[in-house]
Write a structure and sequence with these properties.
single chain; 8 helices; five-stranded parallel sheet; five-stranded antiparallel sheet
Length: 254
């Protein structure tokens, strides 16, 4: 197998290269790359290798930046000083990792795992989903799926996907896509932000969190403020400040 090493510390890179050769003489290290910039240039000019050994923290950024630019099908073994908990995303997706300082036995097991997987399944699983899972660990959270509202001493479940927006206006309210309004018992919008899927819900301002599916139009004002109009039957507008407008646009275009 042909392999490359992405590592900004030369001594560590050479040490890893020597250990790889000791563990498996069939692996040919074709390149030692020391930065995001040099690795990006290399991938633009060369076919992908059979396996990549990549440090996470590099001198000019993180190696994730490299893999976000290229669609790769080869397995990656990350070398890092991060703790095991933070790396559960890698284990779940079948891409191994090595904790620094690198242990020879761990290296051997990682290489054997990759070789076995290459023989039995197509590697890797969606790399971009893997990178997203690691860079944004909150995406692994289990978000709140329903809320309980009370109407005349009766509890009614409201599915989170049916909620168009949450509004705090002296009292707390939930508005559904069908136009219903319910009083809710959440403490604050800050609390809600921690339990709602950030891909689906956005904190428009101090009073409102809006569902992306509830937005009908977005009006950009001369001062760069944005006014959102929500879909019928809701007759509601919510303003987004000039400071938050670029972040909102990026969120909406995800």
């Amino acid at each position: 197998m042909k392999a490359i090493i992405i590592e900004d510390e030369k001594l560590i890179a050479r040490e890893l290269e020597n250990k790889i050769r000791q563990v498996d003489a069939t692996i040919q290290i074709t390149e030692l790359l020391s930065s995001v910039k040099t690795a990006t240039r290399w991938f633009m000019q060369n076919p992908e290798p059979d396996i990549i050994f990549a440090d996470i923290q590099l001198s000019d950024g993180v190696s994730f930046e490299i893999f976000e630019r290229f669609t790769l099908s080869c397995p990656i073994i990350f070398t890092t000083a991060y703790d095991e908990y933070a790396l559960q995303a890698f284990k779940a997706n079948g891409v191994d990792y090595l904790l620094k300082p690198i242990d020879t036995d761990d290296l051997k097991r990682a290489i054997e795992k990759v070789k076995q997987l290459k023989q039995t399944v197509k590697l890797p699983t969606n790399l971009h989903e893997l990178l997203e899972a690691f860079q944004q660990p909150e995406s692994r959270k289990v978000y709140k799926e329903k809320f309980i509202v009370s109407i005349r001493n009766t509890w009614i479940p409201v599915q989170t996907n049916d909620i168009a927006c949450f509004v705090r206006d002296n009292l707390n309210y939930i508005y559904t896509f069908s136009g219903d309004r319910y009083m809710a018992d959440f403490t604050s919008l800050d609390e809600l932000e921690d339990i709602l899927n950030p891909k689906q819900f956005y904190r428009a301002n101090r009073q409102c969190i809006v569902n992306i599916g509830a937005i009908q139009t977005m009006k950009l004002h001369a001062n760069q403020k944005i006014t959102l109009t929500l879909k019928k039957p809701l007759t509601m507008e919510q303003d987004i400040s000039r400071e938050k407008a670029p972040g909102f646009k990026k969120w909406f275009e995800q």
